[in-house]
Amino acid sequence: MSDKPIYVTEPFLPPLEEFIPYLEEIWASKRLTNNGPMHERLEEALCEYLGVPEIALFNNGTIALLTALQALRITGEVITTPFSFVATAHALTWNGITPVFVDIDPNTLNIDPSKIEAAITARTTAILPVHCYGNPCDVEAIQEIANKYNLKVIYDAAHAFGVKDQGGSILRHGDLSAISFHATKVFNTFEGGAIICPDKKTKQHINNLKNFGIVNEVTVVAAGINGKMSEVNAAFGLLQLQHIDQVLNDRKTIDTHYRESLRETPGIKTLQPTDLEKHNFSYFPILVEDDYSLSRDDLYALLRKNNIYSRRYFYPLISEASTYRQQTSASNGLKQSLQISEKVLCLPIYPQLHTDEIERIISLIRNQKNV
Ligand code: T4K
Questions:
Q1: Which residue's alpha carbon is nearest to atom 23 within ligand 1?
Q2: CA dihedral defined by 104, 107, 109, 113, rounded to 10 degrees?
Q3: Which among 9, 45, 148, 173 is placed 20 to 30 Å from 367, CA to CA?
């Protein structure tokens, strides 16, 4: 057994010496935060790289999501998926909004649009879908429902950095999208996030909200929050951006390696690669089916015994957490979500993962006799 643990992910860190000039610039300017020059440069660079009109940087993805809901003055009930990280529903709860859970499509693992209408009530004001693992939701079907019932759509796009469909960035859909730049993400600023906005006016409103609602020295227009990204985080983002194409290529290579090697393994299902202009290969989920020789949890334990830390994203479901399980929408109609959450296992994927490490993971999955 190898001594080196293999985690589900590991952040990509460029050589340290590449970061020093950025730090020297910050030291010289003494500008540490509050929309400094690094922050401005990163917003501009990201708009260009992602192909989006406006972006407002945040100190993390959760605060971005909270603020997106505030910016659109969302209240009452919001329809969302239980198959996500808890931050999705927590952002609603922290805004005094009730999350209403709707089941997922077992093929995409995203909210199933055909089940949304039945969950709409007089209190529903918005839909909060998640592009789970960076795989796009059925954005057209969701928008059609939103238009019909006059609902807002806020995408939790935490996993969707750089994903493009045939029309451009997946982040352009809905009223707003919130993204995460956490250390575990494809593109990271240690901690960080952003809201993608359609126009300058919306961005200005969001900028006010993320700075305590302050407009100038004597004017406060809203009960805002401190959501600002610091200069060090923004500088790290600028450096990451220089390496992002290589990072995405390396992830693609690993995705292909797993996909091809596991194709013939009975009981192991991979998600269908989506027909995208550009994917980000942010996660590599497998479904451990009943005809596999071990249960999902036994495979998880076996990998752990071999120092391989796969993760059961997203098990348990958000709707199973003590905070949510009393709600009506948590207790029925989530059959697909429950089944998937009991089968899913995310395998390690990150640029520095070596071919021999991938081979070791694959051979453990394919042949437990090797253990
Ligand atoms: N919406 C969705 C759909 C999300 O998935 C998330 C976050 C959010 C919203 C909120 O965005 P943020 O507020 O976080 O920006 C991780 C992340 O903390 C979280 O950002 C992410 N989703 C979630 C899916 O995964 P954990 O509790 O699994 O992280 P942790 O600390 O166990 O890290 C996983 C592995 O990564 C570790 O075993 C080792 C490796 N790692 C981790 C860190 C933090 C490193 O090698 N270096 C590191 O610095 O939640």
A1: 85
A2: -40
A3: 9
CA-191 nearest atom, ligand 1: 15
d(CA 67, CA 206): 7
Euclidean distance between CA atoms 12 and 229, whole angstroms: 20
**pTM reported for the whole predicted model:** 0.97
**Dihedral angle at the C-alpha atoms of 242, 58, 156, 278, nearest 10 degrees?**
-10
Ligand 1 atom with minimal separation from the 65 CA: 9
Q: Please write the tens of the pLDDT for every residue from 344-369.
A: 999 999 999 999 999 999 999 998 64
Q: How many other C-beta atoms lie within 10 A of the C-beta of residue 58?
A: 30
Helix/strand/coil for 346:
strand
CA nearest to 347, candidates 273, 248, 281, 279: 281
Q: Hey, whose CA ends up nearest to atom 11 of ligand 1?
A: 61
Q: How far is the CA of 132 from the centre of ligand 1 (A)?
A: 14
Residue 58 forms beta bridges with which residues?
193
Rounded to the nearest 5 percent, the helix, strand and coil shares of the chain are 40, 20, 40
Which domains does the chain carry? 16-239 (3.40.640.10), 244-367 (3.90.1150.10)
Tell me the two tokens of residue 370. Answer: 């090797």
For residue 60, give the ligand 1 atom closest to its CA.
Answer: 15
156 lines ligand 1 (CB under 6 A): yes
* Strands in 279-339 per DSSP E: 284-288, 308-309
In this predicted model, what pLDDT tens digit does every residue of 250-291 receive, in sequence order? Answer: 999 999 999 999 998 999 999 987 788 899 999 999 999 999
Pocket flag, ligand 1, residue 158 (CB < 6 Å) = yes
- Ligand 1, atom 41: nearest CA belongs to which residue? 10
CA of 58 to the centre of ligand 1 (A): 16
